[in-house]
Specification:
Strand 7 and strand 8 form a beta hairpin. With about 450 residues, the protein is of the alpha/beta class.
Length: about 450
């Protein structure tokens, strides 16, 4: 067989199976980053306390749909269960609806699996979970899409929103990710989410509050439990927002609070960022764009910090169910990541997300092993002297308390009051197959 035909027979990635790269790897310091740690010690109790204003609005026998999204919120199952217990104590009949747009491959089974990975099951929340992709049309935005609401939620007597309020990964506005978003996008299932995202990421700041207000005017949204997490991904505060205030000044104030508590990488510039794992349970964009400083959306400017020359990603989290959205934010991946990706689930999510999804699923340079990937990132980062390479390894963009930091950044670490070196430097090590050695963060 001619050489070219033989290479084609190997497939596009098998054809580079023999490629390998060698670079000196830096020694890494274990570093702990200390964040402001406002914490709610009793999330379930706080949820019930905050729901007290609903006592006069809930009637015996009322069927109430409680939303559960696809994000990795630390106390999601606990808060949802507490909300159900509060409503049952008033004689209501609560149930859970997945409110996650197209996530889970836009299938009932897929969305139930996503919730299960997040700890939300009928047993854990002590309520039925009613999942469907069917929607009810409740209106249309002026200069915007048709407005869809999950059919189970729309047919209920009332809806209670539960979601985390945080900075969004695609756009900036007074209201970003939170109660208005789960109302406008999450409850719209695949049809509603795709309709909104068709207008592009730049329109989300306008459309999300507008659509949420129309939904609230069309169906009985009691209000929402807003969860704010601190930089340690622990619940910092839970507060109730009445329906009319969702998408308005009250939610905007919560977003400002979330911004003040969020974590980030403690460096202005890096040459290489090694990310062990990405996934939809870590961030809606797989990797939090607020952390890595890259958005990969046409027409959206990247944030000014941090500036990272090259990024490597080494796994898709099991909870992502094969949805590898976010790999396009990386520059290099090992073949293993390609084997973990479910292209169907990833493409459905990307197409639903419109222009905020397409670049984020583009496949980076794929190489055989972790060792090759990190070496290639070092060789292409623009730092000719390997001793000066500024490299940081993290588990994921949700966990920024524990870092592995190259010796070249020691002076920066020692000068920063919020950074503590927790041991001696060690080599970046790989096993006999070129896989990154596991590290307990």
């Amino acid at each position: 067989m001619p050489k070219l035909e033989a290479r084609r027979a190997l497939g596009p990635f098998e054809a580079v199976r023999e490629l390998g790269y060698i670079a000196p790897f830096p020694s890494l310091l274990p570093v702990r980053q200390v964040f402001r740690s406002l914490t709610e010690d009793d999330p379930a109790g706080a949820a019930k306390r905050e729901l007290a204003p609903l006592t006069a609005s809930v009637r015996p026998g009322m069927r109430v749909a409680i939303t559960a999204g696809s994000r990795g919120i630390r106390d999601l199952a606990l808060v949802v269960r507490a909300a159900g217990e509060f409503l049952r104590a008033l004689g209501a009949e609560p149930f859970v609806v997945p409110a996650m747009g197209s996530h889970g491959g836009a299938t009932v089974a897929g969305q139930l699996q996503v919730l299960a990975h997040l700890g939300v099951t009928e047993d854990s929340v002590s309520m039925p979970i009613l999942a469907t992709m069917d929607t009810v049309i409740v209106g249309r935005c002026e200069d915007g899409p048709t407005i869809h609401v999950d059919s189970h939620a729309a047919k209920a007597d009332a809806i209670l929103l539960v979601n985390r309020v945080k900075p969004h990964t695609d756009f900036r506005g007074p209201v970003e990710s939170g109660l208005a978003k789960i109302c406008a996008v999450g409850l719209g299932n695949q049809r509603g989410a795709q309709g909104i995202h068709a207008y592009g990421a730049s329109a989300l700041a306008r459309l999300i509050p507008e659509i949420a207000k129309q939904v609230i005017a069309s169906v009985n949204v009691l209000g929402g439990l807003a969860i704010i997490e601190n930089a340690l991904d622990l619940t910092a505060r839970i507060t109730f927002v009445p329906g009319p205030d969702i998408g308005g000044a009250a939610e905007a104030a919560l977003l400002e609070e979330a911004y003040s508590l969020m974590g980030g990488l403690p460096f202005e510039e890096l040459d290489v960022l090694v990310v062990d794992e990405l996934g939809k349970d870590k961030s809606g964009s797989g990797m939090d764009t607020n952390v890595i400083g890259r958005s990969k959306i046409w027409g959206v400017t990247d944030s000014r910090r941090p500036r990272i020359a090259t990024i490597t990603v080494h796994a898709v989290s099991p909870a992502a169910e094969g949805n590898g959205l976010g790999i396009g934010l990386a520059d290099f991946i090992p073949f293993r990541v390609l084997e973990q990706v479910d292209l169907s689930a990833m493409y459905v999510n990307a197409m639903t997300a419109g222009n905020s999804g397409t670049q984020r699923v583009q496949i980076p340079i794929a190489l055989p092993t972790d060792r090759d990937v990190v070496a290639a990132a070092i060789l292409t980062c623009g730092r000719p002297d390997s001793d000066d390479v500024r490299l940081v390894r993290i588990h994921d963009t949700l966990d920024l308390s524990h870092l592995l930091v190259s010796e070249s950044l020691r002076a920066t670490v020692e000068a920063a009051p919020g950074l503590i070196i927790e041991g001696e430097p060690g080599p970046m090590s790989f096993d006999e197959f070129g896989n990154l050695a596991a590290h307990v963060y």
